[in-house]
Design a protein that fits this description.
Elements: H1 3-10, H2 16-36, H3 48-63, E1 66-85, E2 89-106, E3 112-115, E4 121-132, E5 174-177
The chain binds zinc ion.
Zinc ion (ZN) binds next to loops.
């Protein structure tokens, strides 16, 4: 039996098209969070290590009084390049091809600083996703695990009431490797 068959057997909800659209959506939201600085919105998509690097990038831009923009960001393709089964988890490696106008503006004046705001740059992004074999799935987790308030984990990983960060790692695929 192949690795994909093993994955589907243990995770009947897995569907490649659904997974690829999830990857695309999360990638765009992560990039936008670097523009807006609202990184807590994407914290639940990524490992702590990746999250710390995203925050460091935003802080570095702030310290340099600039904002990174990804105008006209578009994902052109999402390809699964490998699926691996480890003892306690599955990993999926993805190549995501995106194009955007990547440039910096001044935080105060909003004027152009550097980068390419004329033509979109194509990038191949390697992303690695991991899902624990004992992940609980989303059924019944429409409520904050800390205070019980209802929350939409797809929209925001932070509880509006108690501020708890929802740890996606216990439920679904998490990004464990990504170029920031
Ligand atoms: Zn809560």
């Amino acid at each position: 039996m192949g690795v994909l068959e093993n994955l589907v057997e243990q995770d009947p909800e897995f569907a490649e098209a659904k997974f690829r659209s999830k990857v695309e959506n999360e990638f765009v939201q992560i990039k936008l969070s670097m523009v807006t600085g609202k990184t807590e919105r994407i914290k639940h998509y990524v490992s702590d290590e990746i999250y710390n690097r995203i925050v460091a990038k935003v802080e570095d831009d702030k310290a340099n009084n600039r904002i990174q923009l990804y105008d006209e960001l578009n994902v052109y393709s999402v390809q699964i390049t490998s699926i691996n089964e480890l003892e306690d988890c599955f990993t999926i490696e993805v190549n995501l091809c995106s194009r955007a106008l990547e440039y910096y503006i001044d935080r105060d004046t909003r004027k152009y600083l550097s980068g390419n705001n004329q033509s979109r740059v194509e990038k191949n992004n390697r992303l690695l996703f991991r899902k624990k074999k004992n992940a609980k799935g989303f059924n019944g987790v429409q409520k904050c695990p800390s205070c019980g308030a209802s929350m939409d984990i797809n929209e925001n990983g932070k509880c509006k009431f108690c501020g708890s960060i929802f740890t996606l790692e216990n439920y679904d695929w998490t990004i464990v490797s990504m170029d920031i």
